[in-house]
Amino acid sequence: MGALDVWLLVGVCVSGARYRQDMAFTVPDPLVSPTLRALGFNKPFLDAEAARQHVRACALRPQPYAPGKRIRRDVVIDVDRLEGWPVYQVMPTDASSTGVVIFAHGGGWVNEMSFIHWNFVTALVAEAQVTVIVPIYPLIPFGHAAEVVDRFVEIVRDARARHPRTAIAGDSAGGQIAFSAALELRDRHGITLDDTILISPVVDARLENPGIEELLPRDPLLGVDGTRVFIDLWRGELSVTDQRVSPLLGDLQGLGPVLLFTGTEEILAPDIRLLAERLTAAGVPVEFHEAPGQIHDYPLWPVKAAQGARDVMVERLRASPP
Hints:
8-stranded mixed beta sheet
């Protein structure tokens, strides 16, 4: 692996300038973790004071969240506002949608929708021929779990009233929001979703699983001490055990099918494995994919395994409703 490979990954990680959404570009797996670590991606998640500084910095100078100007030609993006939230709608240009997916982006509840999220969403729209709705929700220190999960519930309800097939999806912190919303939809409205797609979700915000400590040195993106700072701000007045914060601790019975992804090199993997086991025990149809050697959120990164994961999602979304 030469210096050119390293700089290609740096370009992908920092600006996205070298990664066009209509190109098959992948980074060799051995380069991913060391380069992300060298770039300091995990610093705010590893250290409590760094986390607090990151929250202050993002509040003072909010990150951009809009899609880039160079998007795929086979999708079209529109935007509306819902009670102050920008809500994007990404649609295929040349065919009617087979359904709708509401997507909650990750980022530790503190980072905005990024170019890797937009790359993932536009690819999913083009390949699955679905419409993806992307709410830009308020982040900490201004946004909190109760408000955001409640709003996602209403967005899903509205979409379900207008589309024959509705799913919810999310990655990382967004996976927590998506899964918590699925539980609230069942409990408060008797709604069972056609699909819930979770990519490296945070499912137990206590971060007490004994397997976390073993994986911590191998995870180039996440940490515990800083993440706990983000969680304390995110949960607001809710208990960390509330299902709107830690959906693993809720009643899992009666949910619709769940499609679940994790990599073996992320600290969330032990809790995600436990989620798969508990869903199965609760009688929920679950399809669990644990990718050996892959990092947190691997289906979103420009690695070879990402396309295989997306193929699984596309097949699920193109299938007839269960």
